UniProtKB/TrEMBL annotation:
Region Disordered, annotated ranges: 87-118
Ranges of biased composition (kind: Low complexity): 102-118
Family annotation (InterPro entries): S4_RNA-bd, S4_RNA-bd_sf
Protein name: RNA-binding S4 domain-containing protein
Compositionally skewed regions (Basic residues) per UniProt: 91-101
Amino acid sequence: MAAGFSGDAVRVDVWLWSVRLYKTRSLATAACRAGHVRVNGERAKPAQSVRVGDEVVARTDRDHILGVRSLLTKRVAASVAAEAVDDRTPLRRRAPRRRSRSCVSAAPAGPPSATAATSNACARADAQTPRTRSCTCASFSPIAGVSTKG
């Protein structure tokens, strides 16, 4: 049992706020009214009771699957709230990162005027020769397919 509570059931919106899933009780109530909260598979209204052992599924940025370990009626410290919840939410996998399509030269940058002059000269040469690859950076020779910088 939670400190200061002697009953066997708590409102679902109060419990969700107490275990820190929603920042305010008003947000927890709104989530219940919008149909984002389920208790034991059934859509929950804000005043629906939860008991120890119930499963609560609540949607925030994702669906959280929570088991009720103990009943709370007041917002408590995060460590106490964590003990009142059995979090069964599966871990999210990150989407694979996409590689950049831009070609980055490995050569260190020289003085700005020399880099601009070299880049312009390579651009003129690229315009005169057919391309064999899609890379258009200054250090790539489209004819031989090798780097022009050492």
